[in-house]
Amino acid sequence: MQISCPAPILQHETVQMAHGAGGRLSQELMKRVFMPHLQNAFLDQLDDQAKFDAGPGRMAFTTDTYVVSPIFFPGGNIGELAVNGTVNDLAVGGAVPRYLSAGFVLEEGLALEELERIVKSMAESAMTAGVMIVCGDTKVVQKGQCDRIFINTSGIGFIREGVSVSCRYLQPGDAIILSGTIGDHGMAVMTTRAGLSFQSRIRSDTAALNGMIGEVLDVVPGLHAMRDPTRGGVAATLNELASSSSVGIELDELTIPVREEVRGAAELLGIDPLTIANEGKMLLAVPEADAATVLSVMRAHEYGRDAALIGKVVADHPGMVIMRTPYGSHRIVEMPLGEQLPRIC
Amino acid sequence: MQISCPAPILQHETVQMAHGAGGRLSQELMKRVFMPHLQNAFLDQLDDQAKFDAGPGRMAFTTDTYVVSPIFFPGGNIGELAVNGTVNDLAVGGAVPRYLSAGFVLEEGLALEELERIVKSMAESAMTAGVMIVCGDTKVVQKGQCDRIFINTSGIGFIREGVSVSCRYLQPGDAIILSGTIGDHGMAVMTTRAGLSFQSRIRSDTAALNGMIGEVLDVVPGLHAMRDPTRGGVAATLNELASSSSVGIELDELTIPVREEVRGAAELLGIDPLTIANEGKMLLAVPEADAATVLSVMRAHEYGRDAALIGKVVADHPGMVIMRTPYGSHRIVEMPLGEQLPRIC
């Protein structure tokens, strides 16, 4: 019987529909764009699932899809965001992040060079955070049926022994600590999108917080809650915490760190910095006696230099967040309705 | 101080940008569409990550994003597909599927009624497969920036003790077993999309195979490999198996079950049924001595009634799949290049 060689594959410069069809062009995309950056012992198995030792103990599992627009912005890109965001969602649950999946939806026509830059960023961010991307999937849709690239990352981590944090565990008396300036990520994306002139001075804060969280938990394993204030910003996150724990939260506006450029841009656009997404910040609810210790550990870390005690948990007005303004008056920090900054993450 | 109630939320009939903004409308979408169907002890925690006991033993982790178009097709919809597909990717790895994540990208304007039908299907499919959807995420993009709905599901399962399967474990002499008719899913989607008149007679085979796989592994835990032939069909899957294990595969065309309607539609469209996606079928590589046992277990199961021995693994022509035709000649079953049936899953 006669056996001929498969026809040679054309080299493409952009994503083709066939790159997502599970055939030879899918394999080519793997080899040319993904494997050079992401290769590891898990992906090398070529099976449809990654396998590794479970436990002992408890684990955490989380998922997020990233649809940020534009996909490149000052301080980062969608790939970094996808890795750091999921790492952070595990870390604020008290877990040590370990394994990530990556699911891509690509628009036909996306430049392979851009895809490769994004994948390279993901590999670097994963390396920095100490996690491995162990399984993945790529789909391609026709031009005009998605906006360039969407990335889902799901993640698995193992929960540190003795740590038990939840949005339901806030207690009256807890100190509310914020790890740094707010609004940087959302404003970096927003001003880039709007083409505003001060865009270059505002950079996304995207960062993996698991290192800093590990240092905090080393000294205060019993803290009550951690959350990264992403979509909806500090306002949404604190409202969720207050509501889930049936407690009130009181903030002091003067203590909340906001960069001058961010404050200016927010004023110009008519947006409250408290509602803007962050991608490298965290909120903590900590027993009052531990607040000073936590603050000093965080301030010694590069991602916590501007950490501040911004308020406290009270038994009063459960489910509500109240802010004391510089003028001594009070205002409710409401759960944002939505829609001010679409596609920020 | 005066505290007013939050303004009432308008009832919407379609997905709004604000439904993805992490604020009050996101919560409303959760309460109105997702929670009634997906509610469970994990999602009730309202944390950004699900937590559960790990191990002991080994676990499997997989991810897939579903972009099928149309989102409703004869025999199923994108939600069922998203649950069954990820369940199957775990099960063919020898794992008992347990926990799923669900990441949604919704197009502004999608009818909430349609979203709810999809979510309901996911809940039912998860229940049938014996898995729980334990964490999720919803993003909304502007009209025209995605095609109605994309769903990522990632999954975790615990590998059965004594089971070790991989696409690298095929050995010369192994029997190649196929669980049933091929091409049903891809052809159901394709004919619906093309508006062909015989569409109503062809239905997707979407199904969770973990039940049948469990029964097979109960009696033959030492089988070598399992794979579900989705994108690229049986042709792509067998080529991957042959290549990963550096063995040849020989098929007998007459033994491969294809429904008459599927064969007819495939001929009309000029597509080889071997390259069409399946969503409820599996291929197994089994030591020859166990083939009859595996076949009888599968044929007793509703998803394996048409199971057939379709070929064998040989030491010859490593990496190549060769088919004996009804006329006694041989042809190479090539790895498909791609692109015949975009957005099939």
Overall description:
The structure is a homodimer of 345-residue chains. By secondary structure, the first copy, chain A, is of the alpha+beta class. The first copy, chain A, is built from eight helices and 14 strands. A seven-stranded mixed β-sheet of chain A has the order 9-11-8-12-10-13-14. In chain A, strands 2-7-5-6 form a four-stranded mixed β-sheet, with helices on one face. Chain A has a two-stranded antiparallel ribbon with strand order 3-4. In chain A, strand 5, helix 3 and strand 6 form a beta-alpha-beta unit. Chain A starts with 23 loop residues before the first helix and ends in a 13-residue tail after the last strand. At the A-B interface, helix 1, strand 1, strand 2, strand 5 and strand 6 of A face helix 1, strand 1, strand 2, strand 5 and strand 6 of B.
Percentage of residues in DSSP E strands of chain A = 15-25%
Radius of gyration of chain A: 22 Å
Mean pLDDT value of chain A:
93
Read across the widest sheet of chain A, the strand sequence of neighbours is: 9-11-8-12-10-13-14
- Series of H and E elements of chain A: HEEEEHEHEEEHHEHEHEHEEE
According to DSSP, the number of beta strands of chain A is 14
Please write out the topology.
The structure is a homodimer of 345-residue chains.
Chain A: H1 24-38, E1 50-53, E2 58-66, E3 72-73, E4 76-77, H2 78-91, E5 95-107, H3 112-129, E6 132-141, E7 149-159, E8 175-178, H4 184-194, H5 210-219, E9 225-227, H6 233-245, E10 248-252, H7 260-269, E11 283-286, H8 291-299, E12 308-314, E13 321-324, E14 330-332
Parallel strand pairs in A: 5-6, 10-13
Antiparallel strand pairs in A: 2-7, 3-4, 5-7, 8-11, 8-12, 9-11, 10-12, 13-14
